[in-house]
Amino acid sequence: MASPLARPSNDWRPSTAGPAVQVRNFSRRFGDVTVLHDLDIQIGRGEFVALLGRSGSGKTTLLRTLAGIDPAPLDQVQTPTARAVVFQDARLLPWKKVWRNVALGLRGGDIRARAEAALTEVGLEHRLDVWPATLSGGEAQRVSLARALVRDPGLLLLDEPFAALDALTRLKMHELVLSLWKRHAPAVLLVTHDVDEAVALADRVLVLEDGRIAAEERIDLPRPRATDATFQDIRARLLAKLGVDAGQRRPVEGALLAFPSGEIVA
Amino acid sequence: MSSITLDRKTSSFTVPRFRLRGGRWVSPLLLLLVWELGSRTGVIPERILAGPSAVALTFWSMVVGGELPANLAVSLARALAGLAFGLSAGVVLALAAGLSRGGETAIDPLMQLKRTIPVLALTPLFIVWFGIGETPKITLIAVATVFPIYMNLFSGIRGVDARLIEAGKSFGLSQAELIRHVILPGALPSFLVGLRYALGVSLLVLVVAEQINASAGIGHLINNARDFMRTDVIVVCLVVYASLGLAADQLVRTLEARALAWRPTFIKS
């Protein structure tokens, strides 16, 4: 690649006015395969954006780029310095007690106190000193959320964080994420393949297809969102863009938000 | 029939661990008994194999006389010195090869080459180089223990879950922090496997190394006993070697339980 590669984390400082994330004309290739085509994405400060897409649409590649795991040219991808990822598999270090996992890589003093505060926020103040192997899936994901939030991120990246959880735990996690988002106001990019989840949580939904933004929906419904007519319309439109005919599978009004019929089976 | 199997099942649930393990002792005890009987009746002559009771008496007198503790200390010191060198070299080489591609290119082919040479076949060469004192014995043990440590630690480092490394990077860990918090703890279980092998190998090589003109140590005791056809002393020494092996195994088990306390198997127990 001709342009200089650098991890954007160290040099770029966000101006107080601009958006949190600015992606311009960004492409990414692996060999002959172009995964992302000339992407242009902006995420405002404190904005909650959901990124929908089938497997192989390039959503994970985009998330890895924004997370700084894959390098990207500075003039094409700009993100806040403080970023944090919640992965689908919680990726806790099994050899570190829960609070040490949260404190991983923190700088400065009072690390234990900060980790404790973050774990209290996700309701795990009683699990500070246990091994990750003893946590349930939902608990592990909450630790993972605490580990992200303790860094006070300007950008919170959620990589299908609820996909492996059961429906009830998933609903609780939705509430938790929304309340944490309201309190800390990071920009959020939620990568998911669950349309209902995207519509229930996000300010804006992007549909990624073959490395391009194929559709965009702004959702101005108040939260918590009931599955009313507007919700259903947005949902049907998004599913149509993903090539799923949602007409016959519309759930009854007032049904659970995370009714799994909204999931794309790729 | 079915009622019998049922009974057996329920009994194996209720019978305490002690009795189950006791059951496993029956056949070795029987063997001892037959052996003792054979010796007493003269079926097994003493110059072929001394009986268990004779061995026990000899053992006691060797302990009281101080002969066994003194020689055991010499042997242990040899094994530990060799192991210390082998362990250090193995760890350094595995870190260098595991943590950098250049290190792997330089070190791994040499280690694989070295592996093809049976260590004990080096004995004549070491005697030519180092004479018949302590040096060739310790060197043999060191050379033999390098490989199990190297191979297991190296593959442990390379086998650390890439997703955890990625997560660590995403949380801004520096290279040194990644090594300290993610890679080394992740490689620890493999390292301990290597350590267990190395301990076993060190004892094995010790036995052979001590045949090189030793003037002290368990091997020296065996050589002397052979010259005087003291089968009782030989058996005592064999028992000592076996106990050393058991003790080494127990040592690594204890280390594992402490160092790998985070593993689900240890959490449950």
Structural notes for this entry:
- The complex is a heterodimer of chains A (266) and B (269).
- With 266 residues, chain A is α/β, with parallel strands linked by helices.
- Chain A has a domain of 183 residues: P-loop containing nucleotide triphosphate hydrolases (Rossmann fold, 3-Layer(aba) Sandwich).
- The longest helix of chain A is centred in the middle third of the chain and has 18 residues.
- In chain A, helix 6 packs across helix 7.
- Chain A starts with a strand and ends in a 25-residue tail after the last helix.
- Helix content of chain A is 29%, strand content 23%.
- In chain B, 82% of the residues lie in helices and 0% in strands.
- Chain B has two domains: 43 residues, no CATH class; 213 residues, MetI-like (MetI-like fold, Orthogonal Bundle), CATH 1.10.3720.10.
- Chain B has twelve helices and no strands.
- Chain B is an all-alpha fold and 269 residues long.
- Chain B starts with a helix and ends with a helix.
- Chains A and B meet through strand 7 of A and helix 8 and helix 9 of B.
Topology:
The complex is a heterodimer of chains A (266) and B (269).
Chain A: E1 5-6, E2 21-30, E3 33-43, E4 48-52, H1 59-67, E5 72-73, E6 77-78, E7 83-86, H2 98-102, H3 111-121, H4 137-149, E8 155-159, H5 167-184, E9 187-192, H6 195-201, E10 204-209, E11 212-218, H7 229-241
Parallel strand pairs in A: 4-9, 4-10, 7-8, 8-9
Antiparallel strand pairs in A: 1-5, 2-3, 2-6, 10-11
Helix pairs in contact in A: 3-4, 4-5, 6-7
Chain B: H1 2-14, H2 17-41, H3 52-64, H4 67-99, H5 101-116, H6 123-130, H7 134-158, H8 162-170, H9 175-209, H10 218-227, H11 231-259, H12 264-268
Helix pairs in contact in B: 3-11, 4-5, 4-7, 4-9, 4-10, 6-7, 7-9, 8-9, 9-11, 10-11
